[in-house]
Amino acid sequence: xxxxxxxxxxxxxxxxxPGRQVMPSGTREFTDPETAEASPxxxxxxxxxxxxxxxxxxxxxxxxxxxxxDWSALKPQVVSVLLDHFVSEAPLFAxxxxxxxxxxxxxxxxxxxxxxxxIIAQIKDLLETRVRPAVAADGGDIVYRGFDDxxxxxxxxxxxxxxxSSTATLKHGIEGLLKHYVPEVSEVRAA
Length: 191
Known about the structure:
The protein is an alpha+beta fold. It contains five helices and eight strands, in the order βββααββααββαβ.
């Protein structure tokens, strides 16, 4: 088995491609060793010491290193953990739980109003069809967190979280796209 590695716009995060499906649908992010206990693979990656974040995507695992970590030393360790996991065909989640195949951070920042249902459906469709595939290519994900009075709240995950260019992506890329297709959108904010 061969695992490809790609850089991301976030210098702290590398994207690892095992050449097979990682998540059947959605993404799952782990931001600390406690949440990683739900996954033997995420837990093993955090046990390396310099790992501060793990994101499972459709066909990749994005790993974020602590500030000052040496990727030249950490990368072979991550590849070894990934190889062991995928070659052994171990379950991704403790107990094989397919219920973990959705983002963990889905709590809304604001409650959606019923009268905004059509607008929200348009926003979610654009995020799913145009935005998420693009950010997944960079080892990240974006999660809808709410819509209120023209403002769309989005959560950044994986390589997008803490990326130096994430603010520009939100404000100039995603905000422009949503404003163009959904005139009721006036602003996009990170949540």
